[in-house]
Amino acid sequence: MSRPRHMGKIRKRLEDVKSQWVRPARADFSDNESARMATDALLDGGLEAYWQALSQEGEVDFLSSVEAQYIQAQAKEPPCALDPPGGAEAGPKGLDSCSLQSGTYFPVASEGSEPALLHTWASAEKPYLKEKSSATVYFQTDKHNNIRDLIRRCIARASQVLVILMDVFTDVEIFCDLLEAANKRGVFVCVLLDQGGVELFQEMCDKAQISDSHLKNISIRSVEGEVYCAKSGRKFAGQIREKFIISDWRFVLSGSYSFTWLCGHVHRNILSKFTGMAVEPFDEEFRHLYTSSKPVMGLKSPRLAAPLLPGAGRGLPSGCLSSSGSASDRTSSDPFSSPSTGSNPHNQIKNQMKKQTTLWFLMMF
């Protein structure tokens, strides 16, 4: 009697659901070891190794052609693979000792532990907690509430801070809205952009002839998705598919909309507006992502070095704001840069309040 052929988890599920004689089983959400081994094989040896692993594991081809191409295109060697300990003779042995020092393997975990929030706010310091909780949904087909116009109106009405997480940003008009908010109204803007969209964003800046000198009050940073690491040490990072805007820490706009001309005119999208307690998860998610982000353009890494002194007027104490760059970089990256308001007392008070708000924002990071 022949030994029954090993059947992968997905293949067995397919056979069960196609058969009218098999009773429904309880949902199984555990990890698929066969799929993990096949994915590792794809990372290490390409498509041929992937198909061979599927055959050995008795598993179905669970990756689309686009997904397989993405994994291969994004695959990266482990840092130690370029210079294995002990020289060339160490070879694979050196690689194993580097990538598996702990003897523990986490196939879908990132390189480090999840970053903790940089600062914990007291409840009184979160403006959205003072707002009534609500949720409103908008569809692209609603001609009275055009999604692109809603986003641009949100940017136009911001008075203190705009926090944006986006996958693709190539809409020049929305970029102009952000530049106007930052440079004309003194709104601090922080954009976390998916690493895969950085090149397109920089292409837009080149076409519009925008450089760091135009981003005095804007921080553009890149961030990646989760990291899959194979047992060999090879890995690839996912993308950022989350998209949201936090305005003045009071409400959130979130949905499928990307900052592109196509999304604004032909692609169908959905947008939701959240206020009150519903803002908190977005607030926390942004802080988590910010800790792993890298500077692209504009402000590099502003941090508070000294508190704003009461009655300091329009000027700031020397060294109040510092960054990782040189002295000239710190001057050009001053988030308090704004047009002169003259001697009008009302304007001076308003300007002072804006400075305090921006300092309060920087303290979060």
From TrEMBL:
Similarity comment text for this entry: Belongs to the FAM83 family.
Record CDD domains: PLDc_FAM83A_N
Domain of life: Eukaryota
InterPro entries: FAM83, SACK1
Molecular function GO terms recorded: protein kinase binding
Residues in Scaffolding anchor of CK1 domain copies: 20-295
Cell compartments where the protein resides: Cytoplasm
This protein's record includes keyword Glycoprotein: no
GO cellular component: cytoplasm
Any single Pfam family the record assigns to this protein: SACK1
Keywords: Cytoplasm
Low complexity bias spans: 319-343
Region (Disordered): 319-350
Protein name: Family with sequence similarity 83 member A
One of the GO biological process terms: epidermal growth factor receptor signaling pathway
Coiled-coil parts of chain: none
Organism of derivation: Microcebus murinus
